[in-house]
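TL;DR need structure tokens for one chain.
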Amino acid sequence: MDRLQKVIAAAGLASRRKAEEMIKDGKVTVNGKTVTELGTKVSPSDAIEVEGVRIEREEKVYYLLYKPRSVLSAVTDDKGRKTVTDLFPEVEERLYPVGRLDYDTTGVLLLTNDGEFAYQMTHPKFNIEKTYVARTKGIPSKEQLKKLERGVVLEDGKTAPARAKILSVDKKMNRAIVSLTIHEGKNRQVKRMFEAIGCPVQKLKRESFGFLGLHGMNAGDRRELTAHEVKQLRVLAETGKIG
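>> reply
TL;DR here they are.
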């Protein structure tokens, strides 16, 4: 038995908080009866409708994708561009990306149909680290790296402390390869952080998400996460450690 708002959130219809609001507003029925009590628990056999729409309780699936360039982190696109869900034609479940990577950014991207899991993986309070490798125009100085690590002020607030490291430099081309580890997920955050220190990004890749990396994978490859990996990601979100 699960709480009703948890089931609604897991179906991807709304966040847990929004689901609670829908329940209180009388927009949810269980077995044909309107339910407004937040403590209500439901079983897999219960028929749940939200604003008249029946919830299909799919088996939960979890995938890791090595996102290629020129692919949109979305379910659909009104401009007809390829989306990450187009790369899973054989998957019957309704997948959606966990967070997003920019159109021209490559690397680790998770996809699922589990709304609660997606929330745990993306909300800043859970502090799951993501490591990016950027090719920058200009070679960051030690002081510029310290600014990244202390946090830089963007138009939507100051970024949290991060870890930054230069991996290689090309003095002739005046560029560098820099690793940056953050736990937030502001829109275009990594690119904006490098812009803020005067070293704009030319190329960007997310190398890891928590403990998940791209070992042995090429752009466009994907694999299903193991049950153990999903469990460990949940533990990481809840405790900050891998159990």
